[in-house]
Amino acid sequence: MDHESPLLHDLFGIPWLDFNLSTTLMTFISSVIVFIICTLAARNLQMKPTGFQNFMEWVVDFVKGIIGDTMDWKTGKVFLPLGLTLLVYIFISNILGVITMGVWGHTLWWKSPTSDATLTLSLSALVIVLTHYYGVKVKGFKEYAKDYVRPVPFLLPFKIIEEFTNTLTLGLRLFGNIFAGEILLGLITKMAFIAAPITFISIIPMMAWQGFSLFIGAIQAFIFTMLTMVYMSHKVSSDH
């Protein structure tokens, strides 16, 4: 692709600190969309749900199933809001750049915010920090610390390394899939403007790739949420 993301260079006078304006914009838009969706779903609640309320209740039950598969529900029910937020937010963020791409001049403004590694790694780091927080909160610091030397003490360095690898793999997996999807979609779009016959031919692969990208966006949101609950269960459960 011939366009670049808008950056604020040397933020706060720090030479290596760049600020991506399009990622910030799309993160805000994703948050607004999720807020609107949840607000609409919570309006005029009925005992016999229909339409959009019925769909959102299915999503809630789906997240309950994820939590129930990874830990005891009595322990995991507190993580329902976290899982629901991650699933909906990441899915919406994933598909924004699939629906359309906004380019002004040679500057890319409208894209999936999850195609930026800064956002995905920030999400994964936040998740890992939360697992440690709830691990200490549920078990107490002493019992929580003992998990790092179980079943044998020499595993301590490997378990510390595991925390960093979990952060990297969780964030980079999401980033890689969404970024690659946007790159290929951009190449197909660029091909469509070469000549009229190619424009007609490129419609089919573009529609096919958009459908596949929607599927990938949903799968990646599910994987991120599932792994979040798996990591959480390792910290808060005694019988993992």
Automatic annotation (TrEMBL):
Membrane-topology descriptor: Multi-pass membrane protein
Source species, domain of life: Bacteria
Pfam families the record matches: ATP-synt_A (PF00119)
The UniProt record lists the keyword Signal: no
InterPro entries: ATP_syn_F0_a_bact/chloroplast, ATP_synth_F0_asu, ATP_synth_F0_asu_AS, F0_ATP_A_sf
Keyword Ion transport recorded: yes
HAMAP family documented for this protein: ATP_synth_a_bact (MF_01393)
Summary of the function given for this chain in its UniProt record: Key component of the proton channel; it plays a direct role in the translocation of protons across the membrane.
Protein family membership: Belongs to the ATPase A chain family.
Name listed for the protein in its UniProt record: ATP synthase subunit a
The organism of origin for this protein: Gracilibacillus kekensis
